Amino acid sequence: MSNRYLNNELLVFNSLSRKKEPFKPVESGYVGMYVCGPTVYSNVHLGNCRTFMSFDMIYRYLLHLGYKVRYVRNITDAGHLEHDEDEGEDKIAKKARLERIEPMEVVQRYTVDFHQTLEQFNLLPPSIEPTATGHIIEQIEIIQSIIDKGYAYVKNGSVYFDVLKFNSDHAYGKLSGRKLEDMVANTRGLQGHIEKKNPQDFALWKKAEPQHIMRWSSPWGDGFPGWHIECTAMSTKYLGANFDIHGGGMDLKFPHHECEIAQAEAHSGHTPVNYWLHANMLTLNGKKMSKSTDNNIYPHEIFSGENRIFTRAFSPSVVRFFMMQAHYTSILDLSQEALEAAEKGYQRLLEGHKRAQTLEALGQTSSFNVTDWVDRCYAAMNDDFNTPILIAQLFEGVKQINLLHDHPKGMTAEDLELLRTTLSTFTFDVLGLKDESQQDSGHFEKLSGVVELLIAQRNQARERKDFATSDQIRDDLARLGIQLKDSKEGTTFSLS
Ligand code: AMP
Ligand code: ZN
Question: Taking 90 as the threshold, does the pLDDT of residue 335 lie above it?
Fold first, then answer.
């Protein structure tokens, strides 16, 4: 393995055991990780982004440690019904009906939005991004296997998972800590679930009514898969019947993940996942950010500053830094003050980083032990990916850089190099932050190249006395906020 820290103990908080456990992958050096992706019926809000950013940080750290990671994050493009229920309209089909477009146009539009948004936040793409509609056959096969093993029943063209039967020889509710007896005691009657033996049963396959357009043929007639079975089918297909990490937002623990465990155990007899990781919610005004209520903000509204919540814009890296300052299992509330503080903090980190590139170490000894500091950075991340502690350590590194700036004799060249690379590795590779000022200067270089090219074209036009063209170039650039200034030395430009 490439990283000497791979052999240090990485502790992860496992929602299944409710404690931190040493991380031991099924196959040494390899990690299989599945994260529930979005249901692509609307734009992703900042809350959704927080969950995906948390797992991007985890993915990045595992890669940094030298693991070969297969990261599967699906796209839910069918089967997710309104209010996460077994009755009602498909979220995507409903949007298609309201917008008078094809369901697959809805899927395409919001999948593109999802990708563009995550790219702005500098998320790495997963290794595989499978779709529910691309895995109907795999879902049907698993449903059939669950029926064959006696844990599901067919009713009027739909298939339901028999939770009571499953619970008689397995434990239903172990992830969420719910007891089936309590669930049964708390539900009166079947409340609209006329086809189910028990209200706790959940749909594996639903018969499609004539008006339901997203439909596929199956051994039980035309229909569509239930919401939970897609993740079981796709995780089993790409990661096997028993894999390392399954992630998602805290709100998916029940029923979605509980049902995934039941389905997989009924199908393969194996517990599917060794470590269940849940990312906590982003709140706004103290309430969960959510698609179904208006309590949300979209990333583009933050980047442009055009929103009703904040008085100015914040960049993607500032928002990402704000997210990384909280532990992924803690609730995090979004506010202008918090973003402003994050902006200041991030600037300080970047300045320290830039200053580190310009320093030369002249000393022989150091009162600051850089190797111990590096160990503390890894210890933070090895303690269930504790990014707030890591960031505190990075600030400690910046403090040493600033001290060294004032007293160049304070560190050996070797130590300075270690400090420099560790600072940059954790900031950019692990936390996934970007130096946006450098990115802007890259853009500026390109822009000046293009303007210089137009200036040359304008000069040629003037030489051949084609003043119409030369004036047009000048006026068109002025409309774009680029002013040309002619002098004896030549033409220069300025941006307004
Ligand atoms: P959905 O498209 O609704 O299935 O959500 C996609 C992901 O975003 C899931 O993992 C959810 O748990 C997560 N999510 C939804 N709301 C929030 C929130 N307010 N904060 C953090 N994650 C969220
Ligand atoms: Zn899922």
Answer: yes
